[in-house]
Amino acid sequence: MDVGLFLREVRKAPGRMGAILPSSKYLSRLMVSSAEVQDDHVIVELGAGTGPVTAAIRDTAPNAPLLALEPGAELAAHLRKTFPDVDVSETYVQDLVETATEWGHTDIDRVISGLPWTVFPEESANAGLAAVAQVLKKDGILVTFTYVHANALLPGGKRLRQLLNTHFGDVSTSRIEWRNAPPALVYICRQPKKSEA
Ligand SMILES: C[S@@+](CC[C@H](N)C(=O)[O-])C[C@H]1O[C@@H](n2cnc3c(N)ncnc32)[C@H](O)[C@@H]1O
């Protein structure tokens, strides 16, 4: 994947990117296998960046309707060029209910997230996860990665786990993927809790 483009974006918007390198193909595959993705699923990817996870989704589900959210304009243009059969939206996860409605799918089977939840302000992370839980089917799954050091040591890691438990009834973790810089693991979140409104 395009590391040069990723690094340019990190220099431009470090808070939005929340990482120093794109996910490795090993972590990308772990995310897709953890989500038990199938070709007849309706799939949303959050924060697609330069597209390593998009490529892994397409390897497993070449025909699935796939919407990739990527608010970075240059990254979105790169995704459209690289994956012409993926719908790319330059919107934020916090607006996912509206974006999914406009896309034409409100019952999503899988949401695969590359978002830096641990660096988001709490209110923003909470609003994003509420929107994800809202659009997922009852038996839908969210997967999202977290870096091992952040998960174990940083306040944002503990807060992420609490927020996932707020919005999902069943939260588990994958094995650690060491072949990623930094090493990471995947949260697998089932039983989305719908808001009353
Ligand atoms: C850590 S990068 C991950 C990129 C890619 N998925 C990967 O694994 O290499 C996070 C991406 O999320 C995007 N992003 C940041 N905030 C977002 C938000 N609120 N909604 C949707 N995407 C967002 C950034 O522009 C960036 O491309």
CATH superfamily: Vaccinia Virus protein VP39
> How do the SSEs run, as a string of H and E?
HHHEHEHEHEHEHHEE
Biggest sheet features: 7 strands, mixed
Shape: globular
How would you write the strand order of the largest sheet?
A: 3-2-1-4-5-7-6
Oligomeric form of this entry? Answer: single chain
Tally of structural domains: 1
Level-1 CATH class name: Alpha Beta
- What proportion of the residues is helical, as a percent range? 40-55%
What is the structural class? alpha/beta
How would you state the average pLDDT, rounded? 95
Note the gap between the termini: 40 Å
Q: Estimate the strand proportion.
A: 15-25%
Please give a structural write-up:
By secondary structure, the chain is an alpha/beta fold. The chain has one domain (about 5-190): Vaccinia Virus protein VP39 (Rossmann fold). Helix content is about 45%, strand content about 20%. The protein has nine helices and seven strands; from the N terminus they run αααβαβαβαβαβααββ. It has helices at about 5-10, 15, 25-35, 50-60, 75-80, 95-105, 120-135, 150-155, 155-165; strands spanning about 45, 65-70, 85-90, 110-115, 135-145, 170-175, 185-190. It has a seven-stranded mixed β-sheet, sandwiched between helices. α7 (about 120-135) packs parallel to α9 (about 155-165). It is globular. The termini are far apart. The mean pLDDT is about 95. The structure holds S-adenosylmethionine. S-adenosylmethionine binds near residues 22, 53, 114 and 115.
